[in-house]
Amino acid sequence: MVEETIFSKIIRREIPADLVYQDALVTAFRDISPQAPTHILIVPNLLIPTVNDVTIEHEAMLGRMITVAAKIAEKEGLAEDGYRLILNCKHHAGQEIYHIHMHLVGGVLLGPMLSYSFKK
Ligand code: 5GP
Description:
- The chain has 120 residues and is α+β, with helices and mostly antiparallel strands.
- It has one domain: HIT-like (HIT family, subunit A, 2-Layer Sandwich), CATH 3.30.428.
- The chain is built from three helices and five strands.
- Strands 1-2-3-5-4 form a five-stranded antiparallel sheet, with helices on one face.
- Strand 2 (26-30) and strand 3 (38-44) form a beta hairpin.
- It starts with 5 loop residues before the first helix and ends in a 14-residue tail after the last strand.
- Bound molecules: guanosine-5'-monophosphate.
- Guanosine-5'-monophosphate is lined by residues 6, 17, 29, 31-33, 41, 88, 94-97.
């Protein structure tokens, strides 16, 4: 049994959020605790807990997350300098909300991709 998160309530507009985009497949809203000047979450309207749970049936909505990210980045003035899209999967990646979401972060030079150091 998959448990709903706060994101389902935001998608259904039962609780407030700073919505920037919504269509039949995805919803985008500003992160409540931004880590960059622009920090927006793009989520599928259907509850999929983690990237481990995606199937071929989800490809349209997962693709839409990327096209919407590009559209929002353009609108937010991030397209030229660039930005980062992040999908965290489970505890090693620090996933807190078990409803897939893509972080769109930008508006500043973001630095190295990962904060831990890895030497092979
Ligand atoms: P994760 O660590 O799961 O990849 O990211 C979850 C994100 O959701 C965090 O950046 C956190 O700030 C954001 N978040 C958690 N609860 C809420 C909420 O109620 N509203 C909004 N707008 N963002 C939230």
